[in-house]
Amino acid sequence: MAPPMDSSDFSKLRTVEPISSDPTASPATTWEKFKQAFGMLVEVSKNRPISETVCLREALIFGIPGSFFCSMAAFLLTTNRIRVFQAAMLSLPVLSMGRFTQCRASKFHERKATILVSKMIRAKMLTDGTAKQAEFERLFKKSTVELSELERQLDEIISKQQTGAD
């Protein structure tokens, strides 16, 4: 029998949010829309190391040198110490949050593409040899333009994974 847990033990536990099976589903309420729009910021506020937060490390690696170069450019243009400090302080969060947002958006689109491909494979497996096979193939042929773009994006993802780039 396990010993009873006291309230200090609960602070050590992490909560895990369930992953929605369809990230493209529209939220029902205004609050859900707000949570979905700012969901990427929730990851940062979970008190985890930077290396475990998706895209945050990359955003800081991009933002810190970018801030340095912005401050150097401000120094070359104005030679005013206050302006240099302002340029550094303003460019760091702007560059970091811009890169963080772009990275999270690309991860979201990669995940959507993965879900779409898995649904297509599942539909193909379920319709092979049935009366619905013609309907699936007609639907598949109708979306060849979108699929060629999806294939290009998937090729990029595969090449990035094979080369070790993130």
Automatic annotation (TrEMBL):
It comes from Rotaria socialis. This is Cytochrome c oxidase assembly protein COX20, mitochondrial. Residues 1-27 are annotated as: Disordered. It is found in: Mitochondrion inner membrane. It holds the Pfam family Cox20. Keywords: Coiled coil, Membrane, Mitochondrion, Mitochondrion inner membrane, Transmembrane, Transmembrane helix. The keyword Transmembrane helix applies. Its main location: mitochondrion. One of its GO terms (cellular component) is mitochondrial inner membrane.
